[in-house]
Amino acid sequence: MKRKKSLNRTFLLFAASAVLLLMSTVGSTRAALTYRSENYDMKFDVSSIGVTLLENGEPVSRRDYVDDGWQEETGELLTEMLGEDESLVPGRSYEERLSVRNSGSIDSYVRVTLYRGWTKDGENMDTELSPGLIGLDLAGGDWFEDPSAATSERMVFYYRNILQSGQETSPLCTALRIDPAVARKVSETRTETAEGTVITTSFAYDGYRFYLKAEVDAVQTHNAAEAVKSAWGVDAEVAEDGTLSLKSASGL
Amino acid sequence: MKNEQKKILGLTAAAFLLTAGVCVRPALAYFTTHVSASGGHELQLDFTTTVPKEEVRQWVKYLAVENTGTEACYVRVKAFAGEDIGLTWTADGNWAEGPDGYWYYRELVVPGSTAEGISIKVDKGIREEDFNVIVVQECAPASYGEDGEPLGWEQADWTGKADVVKDGAEAEDRGNEG
User: Fold this and answer.
1) Residue B172: its chain A contacts at CB < 8 A?
2) CB pairs below 8 Å between A and B: how many?
3) Does pTM top 0.80 for this prediction?
4) Does ipTM top 0.90?
């Protein structure tokens, strides 16, 4: 008899937990059902994240979460760098101010990853040529680099402050300059012919296209350290005033 | 009895863990977003080609250097002769004498243009036999400042060395030597 009683209690407890589980689902469904009325829509500004990449103060690409969906626009960098019929001059400093705007409704932390390199066909990077000759004047300030993530082609920068909704970061970089050393590397090809040896010399960088790519990541500020770890895979520390820092990362 | 109670407790704990698991899962999703853009431009480089021109009239060599290439360049000239041969330079304001014996053209020589206005008067003294006065002309590619403007002739790089990557027969020879 006692055994039967305890079994009943077990089933009761199971039933109670099942109801609890069901209620957790039903609760949100009920909220959805009562959210709208026939007369008017109530605009609920739920937490939505968004980020925009700016070049020389103008938006280039953005990705914002709006009305239960992502709104994206992807543009191209460096389109205004050269005038019509103007050719690229090694040594010249071209304005290239990259910054980030928080185009969402919640505060966020942001980081920018820059990739640079040389390509002949526009698709594959040439690993023989030096990405270091594509120079960027880094502004420093509130940006700091993660040296452990750096390669010759890649640089990763973090904005140390909370980027509030609608705000813009200070520029990450201010100018781009192709090192004149590109004109010093030449290729010499010797070909034996019936008339003798033909030596052909050509610039190693001639006809190559330099390439710059900027990737912007944004993450929520709530539970920042965990969010940064989960989204970006790095160990971050957040000070009381919201300043972000990485373990083993240094300033610019 | 004790076993029964343990079982009940265990099952209850499992049920709560299940419920807790349902609640915890959404909290592990974080608000993130990302965006990117890229771009670039082609680099076109060409060799600077200059052609020296000399005209001799009445023991005076009139010099000129024409840029026949597609890139602007700086130009300098120098003359060599025996010790007993006197050389007297005459140049207009476009030329400046350097401390190294070279005469430097002050302006950038753009493609298709010619640096001229310089001559050498040759004094052979008492010399009767044949002799040579050799004029050497050199050019250096134009250098540009950060503002995109060409640098002055004083800032031309005459010491730059090409980093040559050899290919073909010579590269093979060097490989064998190594």
Assistant:
1) none
2) 206
3) no
4) no
